[in-house]
């Protein structure tokens, strides 16, 4: 398995795992059990998404597309322009 991405938090990690699963990619969240100790551990690098070696490149492409996503015209709240609505 390869560690391919470091999510900002548990919510993003779970969202990305679900997205990868919908594309047939089995992922594993490294560090999930350490999140509860965040007050004592440095948060940066604590979480990581890992996938099987043969699926790593496709998973990276999907995550890059997720990070590059822009809101569709008319789908963003007027109070916070440029924000994606999920």
Supply database-style keywords:
alpha+beta, 2 helices, 86 residues, single chain, globular, three-stranded antiparallel beta sheet
How do the helices and strands line up, and which of them pair or pack?
Layout: E1 2-5, H1 10-22, E2 27-30, E3 48-51, H2 56-68
Antiparallel strand pairs: 1-3, 2-3
Domain DUF2007: 1-65
Protein name: DUF2007 domain-containing protein
Organism: Pseudomonas urmiensis
Strand-residue proportion: 5-15%
Helix content: 25-40%
Tally the helices.
2
Give unreliable regions as ranges: none
If you compute it from the alpha carbons, what radius of gyration comes out, rounded to the nearest whole angstrom?
A: 15 Å
Could you state the order of secondary-structure elements as H and E? EHEEH
Mean pLDDT: 81
Strand line-up of the largest beta sheet: 1-3-2
> What's the story with the biggest beta sheet?
3 strands, antiparallel
Domain module count:
1
Global outline: globular
- Ends: how far apart? 29 Å
- Please identify the top-level CATH class: Alpha Beta
Task: Please name the CATH topology.
Answer: Alpha-Beta Plaits
Pfam family, one: DUF2007
Domain DUF2007: 1-65
Protein name: DUF2007 domain-containing protein
InterPro entries: DUF2007
Can you walk through the features of this model?
- The chain is an alpha+beta fold.
- It has a single domain (2-68), classed as Alpha-Beta Plaits (2-Layer Sandwich), CATH 3.30.70.
- 30% of the residues lie in helices and 14% in strands.
- It has two helices and three strands, in the order βαββα.
- A three-stranded antiparallel sheet has the order 1-3-2, covered by helices on one side.
- The chain starts with a strand and ends in an 18-residue tail after the last helix.
- The mean pLDDT is 81.
- InterPro entries: DUF2007.
- This is DUF2007 domain-containing protein.
């Amino acid at each position: 398995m390869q560690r391919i991405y470091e999510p900002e938090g548990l919510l993003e990690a779970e969202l990305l795992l679900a997205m990868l699963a919908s594309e047939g990619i089995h992922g594993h969240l490294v560090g999930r059990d350490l999140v509860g100790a965040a007050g004592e551990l440095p948060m940066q690098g604590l979480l990581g998404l890992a996938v099987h070696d043969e699926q790593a490149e496709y998973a990276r492409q999907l995550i890059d597309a997720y990070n590059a996503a822009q809101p569709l015209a008319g789908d963003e709240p007027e109070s916070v322009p440029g924000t994606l609505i999920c």
